[in-house]
Amino acid sequence: MDLAAEHVTVRFGGLVAIDDVSIAISPGEVLGLIGPNGAGKTTLVNVLAGFQAIARGSLRLGERSMAGSPASSFARSGIVRSFQSVRLFRGMTLSENVEVGFVSRGSGRQQARERALSLLKELNLHHKAHHPANALSYGEERRAGLARALALEPRFLLLDEPAAGLAAAEAEELRQTILALRDRYGCGILVIEHNMALVMSLCDRVHVIGSGKTIAIGTPEAVRADQAVRAAYLGGKELG
Ligand SMILES: Nc1ncnc2c1ncn2[C@@H]1O[C@H](COP(=O)(O)OP(=O)(O)OP(=O)(O)O)[C@@H](O)[C@H]1O
């Protein structure tokens, strides 16, 4: 069951932020969404997560039309979006932050606690489980954001620049974590990311947009070699 936007257009007043774009994510794949600043990446992810109304086009999860449904209905269907800045509940422990997600999906308190601890272990954060959420390092906070998103049991996980601000070693750790989570949970993962080395090594496919339009869709190798991508996206420079 794919999550797909077809021929979608989004306008902000007179500005066409997304112009007839079709994008699809399949379960179990990691799809990169790249493009220069202002290309429309965040807007497109907001469309897929149900946070942004569309002027034209369609949106579906499998056979089910999602356009016009409230954001809560996207979340209930397993479409989970993470934000660039992690919004943890600061007055709670890390574990409690994750438990909230499991409880919202119907787990009892005890089960939520067990599942939170097991997830934190997978993300190499169990040593911080009972620390206040405001006592995490930057890298830990980013992984905590991932834990929070995973506690919502996503079928599709939409990640907005998960590696922003991470050092190379932390970005590599994040890459391995994302792939392990994909393999374990089988969810489709869309990643907006400016770190090209990470995009090229993490993604099964890459969707490139510029000025609200699709420039190319393909494997990392195909996209890296694409003349239109080089010209429009990087002014002819080598990608990655
Ligand atoms: N709420 C809004 N109101 C008006 N214009 C908006 C709004 N959100 C985005 N835009 C405009 O739409 C275009 C696409 O923005 P968007 O944030 O989706 O791009 P992006 O590719 O995510 O950029 P970045 O890489 O800088 O985050 C930009 O021209 C932006 O200024």
Taking the alpha carbons of the first and last residues, their distance comes to 31 Å
CATH topology grouping of the largest domain: Rossmann fold
Based on DSSP secondary structure assignment, what is the total number of beta strands?
10
CATH level-four homologous superfamily name of the largest domain: P-loop containing nucleotide triphosphate hydrolases
What's the shape?
globular
Largest β-sheet summary: 6 strands, mixed
Ranges where pLDDT stays below 50 over 5 or more residues in a row are none
Round the mean pLDDT to the nearest integer and report it: 92
- Which ligands are bound? adenosine-5'-triphosphate
Label the CATH architecture of the largest domain.
3-Layer(aba) Sandwich
What amount of the residues lies in strands? 25-35%
Strand order of the largest sheet: 6-7-8-3-9-10
What is the CATH level 1 assignment of the largest domain?
Alpha Beta
The number of helical runs is: 9
Computed over alpha carbons, the radius of gyration is 18 Å
Instruction: Count the domains.
Output: 2
